[in-house]
Amino acid sequence: MNASRFEYPERWRSVICTIYGLVFALCVLVPSAQSAGRPSIDHLVSFFETVVFGAEIDDRMKSLVIARWTGALRIRVKGQASPENIQSIRRHLVVIKKLTGINIEKVEAPEKPENLTILFLPAMEMSKVKINGVDPDYIRQIAAPLSCYFLSFKKPPDTIVRAVIVVNTQRSDEAINHCLLEE
């Protein structure tokens, strides 16, 4: 059979029609999804850069590299955490362990100090937290929105060695869960 290059055997016609249909659908649907309020790739990249490298409150706190935990997380929860808050923490830590493989343990005894403190406080107490190595004026500044805040300590700049999360207990459980996930 003498077939030109535009003629295909019967079995391939349905495959080719399906591929053309998918390409057409993508050409039509992707622009309409973006116009329906979905962010563009450029917007998502910009958001990623702001979250990972930027500083929401003080530009002096910007990072030049992505920092991560390299050792085990030793977590201590302090303050007035509700059972729902503890459950949220556990859910998030299960996901973190699955994604990173990092060891995570809850610590209580002073002979094994934590490297991640999660502190649950009423809104008016959030600005009074004393954290070694952090200017109290800076703590007052980041506590001002009365939601939650996160401080990390790095050595070298790409390795987190200690962190503190401070959470406003006067927010709803849903807002606290969001805060714990974000921080």
Largest sheet: 6 strands, mixed
Terminal Cα span: 67 Å
What structural class do the secondary elements suggest?
A: alpha/beta
Percent of residues in β-strands: 15-25%
Helix/strand order, N-terminal first: HHEEHEEHEEH
- Number of strand elements: 6
Q: Runs with pLDDT <50, length 5+?
A: 1-26
Helix content: 40-55%
What is the number of helices? 5
Shape: globular
The overall pLDDT, averaged over residues, is 79
Radius of gyration, taken over Cα atoms and rounded to an integer in Å: 25 Å
Compact overview of the structure:
With 183 residues, this protein is an alpha/beta fold.
Which SSEs are present, and which pair or pack?
Blueprint: H1 10-35, H2 41-53, E1 68-69, E2 73-79, H3 83-100, E3 104-106, E4 116-121, H4 136-143, E5 148-154, E6 159-168, H5 173-182
Parallel strand pairs: 1-6, 2-3, 2-4, 4-6
Antiparallel strand pairs: 5-6
Written overview of the protein:
The chain has 183 residues and is of the alpha/beta class. Helix content is 41%, strand content 19%. It contains 5 helices and 6 strands, in the order ααββαββαββα. The chain has helices at residues 10-35, 41-53, 83-100, 136-143, 173-182; strands at residues 68-69, 73-79, 104-106, 116-121, 148-154, 159-168. Strands 1, 2, 3, 4, 5 and 6 form a 6-stranded mixed beta sheet that branches. A hairpin with a 4-residue loop joins β5 (148-154) and β6. α3 packs parallel to α5 (173-182). The protein is globular, with a radius of gyration of 25 Å. Residues 1-26 have low confidence and may be disordered.
